[in-house]
Structure formats: C-alpha cells, structure tokens
C-alpha cells in the first residue's frame, strides 16, 4: 500500500512540474507575440509618417518649380 501512495505523489509532482513548465513556456510565447505586434505597429506608424513627410516635401518642391517657371515667363 505504501508503494502506491509514493507513486501517486511522484506522479502528482511530475504533472505539477510539467504544467508549470507549460505555463511558463506559453507565457514567454505570448510575450513574444505581443512584442512583435508592438514592433510591427511602431514600424508601420514610422513608415506612414516618413511617407507623409516625403509627399509634403515633394509637393513643396513642385510648388517651387512652378513658381520659378512662372517667374521665368514674366522675365521674358
């Protein structure tokens, strides 16, 4: 009878350790996914900001070119 009780205790300990390891592993995996999601979001936001600034700069350059061409026409 004593042997059966020891087996149950060992089995319970092994199951408890495995469940703890699984919990820690899934927690790390979840944190990794959250980290990657945040990095992706920040990268997209930075890219959109850069594209917006680039478009504004190109519009400004186009305005300057048009103004220069108008000024050249007036000088003739």
UniProtKB/TrEMBL annotation:
<feature type="compositionally biased region" description="Basic residues">
    <location>
        <begin position="64"/>
        <end position="76"/>
    </location>
</feature>
<feature type="compositionally biased region" description="Basic and acidic residues">
    <location>
        <begin position="48"/>
        <end position="63"/>
    </location>
</feature>
<dbReference type="GO" id="GO:0009535">
    <property type="term" value="C:chloroplast thylakoid membrane"/>
</dbReference>
<keyword id="KW-1133">Transmembrane helix</keyword>
<feature type="region of interest" description="Disordered">
    <location>
        <begin position="48"/>
        <end position="76"/>
    </location>
</feature>
<protein>
    <submittedName>
        <fullName>Uncharacterized protein</fullName>
    </submittedName>
</protein>
<keyword id="KW-0812">Transmembrane</keyword>
<keyword id="KW-0472">Membrane</keyword>
<feature type="transmembrane region" description="Helical">
    <location>
        <begin position="12"/>
        <end position="38"/>
    </location>
</feature>
């Amino acid at each position: 009878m004593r042997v059966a009780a020891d087996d149950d205790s060992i089995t319970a300990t092994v199951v408890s350790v495995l469940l703890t390891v699984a919990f820690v592993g899934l927690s790390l995996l979840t944190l990794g996914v959250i980290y990657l999601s945040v990095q992706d979001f920040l990268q997209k936001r930075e890219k959109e900001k850069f594209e917006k600034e680039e478009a504004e700069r190109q519009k400004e350059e186009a305005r300057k070119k048009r103004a220069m061409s108008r000024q050249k026409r007036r000088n003739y």
